[in-house]
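quick one before i forget lol
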Amino acid sequence: MAKRTVIIAGATGMVGRAILDGLLADDAVTEVHCLGRRPPPTTHPKLRMHVVNFASIPVLPQADEVYLALGTTIKVAGSQQAFRAIDYDANLAVARAAQAAGVTKLGLVSAMGADASASVFYNRVKGELEEALEKMSFAGLVIARPSLLVGDREALGQPARRGEKLGLALSKVLSFLIPANYQPIAAAAVAKALLTAVPQAQGKNILLSGAMH
């Protein structure tokens, strides 16, 4: 596979960290430009860290792919407005800056139920972002819509989420009743699916949890 330069935003989260690890381990990736408000606890010869204000992203180096893994919850953000500023505005700003840097392929960590016409605010914002990215006409657009994400948040310095623990416990007991797309999925599995799909993507592709397991 041809050598690639990659941009990633959100590498301190569960999926983003797994994507970053995969990129650094990929011999076909020569440089990884990581955008964030703070650097990830990782050092590597091909990692280039850019501490940025997502409201005003500087000109980015030329690159081939971008991975968007920025995300939060309304509870952590503190308000719907603050949530939208991260999950919609920041992701879209990175996509625009990446496209200006020559990026032609984009991978997005979205969510199950993303729908721009949804009545639920969280799902609506996720869907609006997907629609905005599709209008940008990337040559390849891969959207991952995982169900309940599971992973070691505490190892990343994030608070454990009670809902995730409860959902995981219930799924273990009732797994035979739960369709594959609704079963909890490991963050590493989502990262692997995106890392596999994005380099060869053509047009719009949506990955549901059942396919990513």
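fyi The mean pLDDT is 90.
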